[in-house]
Amino acid sequence: MSASALIMYATSNDGVTLRAALSGELDLRDADEVRDNLTAAAQASSYRLLEIDVSNVTLIDSYALGALVSVRNAAAGAGITVTLINPSPPVLKAIQVTGLSEVFGLPPLS
């Protein structure tokens, strides 16, 4: 499995979970690459859960959010659940403001 400067992959010992860690600024410039890379990794694996760690994402724009929704939808079509874990403050706020909390397994805006 390949990794880019923005994405690092790790497999779990449970045989069920593939973990991806994103870092840096996710915006229009990188969104297509992130979408394509995560979708390909999810669909090529035998894992049933893709956890995307977004703790090191410092900025996320609407285009990148759309890319993550595309990953989630493509993975769901292959029977894979996608969750975002450890959201950084900018990611959590963007997810909550857009109403995507439930889609990614995060708490709603309070």
TrEMBL record:
Provide the transmembrane region boundaries. none
Entry-linked Pfam families = STAS_2
Mind telling me which CDD domains this protein's record contains? STAS_anti-anti-sigma_factors
Q: Which InterPro entries match?
A: Anti-sigma_ant, MlaB-like_STAS, STAS_dom, STAS_dom_sf
Q: Which domain of life is it from?
A: Bacteria
Q: Which residues form the STAS domain?
A: 22-110
Recorded coiled-coil stretches: none
Which is an annotated GO molecular function term of this record? Answer: anti-sigma factor antagonist activity
Protein family according to the UniProt entry: Belongs to the anti-sigma-factor antagonist family.
Annotated PANTHER family: ANTI-SIGMA FACTOR ANTAGONIST TM_1081-RELATED, ANTI-SIGMA FACTOR ANTAGONIST TM_1081-RELATED-RELATED
Q: What name goes with this protein?
A: Anti-sigma factor antagonist
Organism, per UniProt?
Actinoplanes utahensis
